Amino acid sequence: MDSKLSPNKVNRDALQRSYDKNKPLLTAILNGVQNQVKNSLHLASTPLYKSRVKSFDSYYKKLLRIKPASLGKQELPVLTDLIGIRVICAFLEDLQEVEKQLVQNFKIVEIERKGADKSFSEFGYESLHILIEIPEKLTEFSGNGDCLRMPEGLVCEIQIRTILQDAWAEVEHELVYKSEFSPFDLPLRRKLASINATLSLADIIFQEIRDYQNKLNSELDYRRESFYEQADFLAREHMADLSYGTANVLPEHTPPSSPYVRGTIDDMILDAIHAHNTGDLDKAIQIYTVIVNSRPEPNNIVLSVIYKHRGMAYFAKNLYAEALSDFNTSIEKDSNNSSAYYYNGIVCAVQNRDEDAVLAYNRSIELNPYQSHVFYRRALAQYNLCHFAEAMEDVKSAMDLGLDDADVKRLYDTLSAKIELQF
Predict the structure, then answer these.
(1) In 238-319, which residue ranges form alpha helices assigned H by DSSP?
(2) Buried-most residue among 206, 211, 391, 418 (CB within 10 A)?
(3) pLDDT for 92-114, tens place per residue?
(4) How far from 416 is each of 32, 69, 241, 245, 405, CA to CA, in Å?
């Protein structure tokens, strides 16, 4: 065949036979590439994957339309999208991360940002297309006694989209590309542009919510870590017979930066947690109190969380009576709040009320038996009560659940010596 010949002189039957012969190889290569892509991508939200070898009819039509340089020069002329994988992500932020990780793990032929040049009034939707070279170990395939080699110039197209971008692309394909009618009518074009804008806005809003959650989780993690470190510091002060080897001082932290806006209860919670993390405990308590007095809905669940947060702020100010009151109120509002019981136990332990601490830890573990740190703190309380066997069981449970820091090992060694002396 000659690539310059008119389309009606291209031998369709010969192309069909070549396509059918090579399809098992193309499928095997595609599956191999997809497995490598899956193993290479690490995202907070697991993406969905779609893959396909282009159907012969679609392949043939596009071949005649674009007339690639390989047409007439090799048995199976290649198209850049002859094999393709679609990576469908939950959030806009994932698109850049997928691109970054693909660039790190594959040889890139081309990166194209489809739809990036369209104005907001146009109905084309964005999609990121990356062409990658086929990894060398995937270029051969043995099947039916034949050893086939990859067609020269074959690449794999990887399309990266959000869920909403993919939904739009599927519908747009049916409405526009598979139809003889093209929506040039102005009202219809406006409707399509409106749908495009709505989906684009939805993607942006989802990402903003995701960003908000990430900021909140960052603040919560920092605040929780600081709370536990203060509890550890106080626990060590009450266990003079354990040698900790280092100065018993609270570590300094640099709190994470967290821009936010005010308005909703969610914003106020983030505002309060940020104030807590930056040391402005009075402001944090004031904001939590405003939220409590506003009686948020659904009342009990939200209030349980707010009282727990305010209790942690009181605890940071060494106002243990107020902290315990808030943790108890948190439990009253939601009796399944395992962390409120846990924090209740910590305050009781700090007040040298180890029997009450054990009862609180018991309830927390009943609600969630996979809390290694609760087992450890119950072991500390049992140790203070001279219940060494029970304390040892709790230490072992904490270690079985993955808690193996220096404090746990030190308590284990101390308990082993205590138990050995008893026999």
Answers:
(1) 265-277, 281-293, 299-316
(2) 391
(3) 999 999 999 999 999 999 999 87
(4) 53, 77, 14, 19, 17
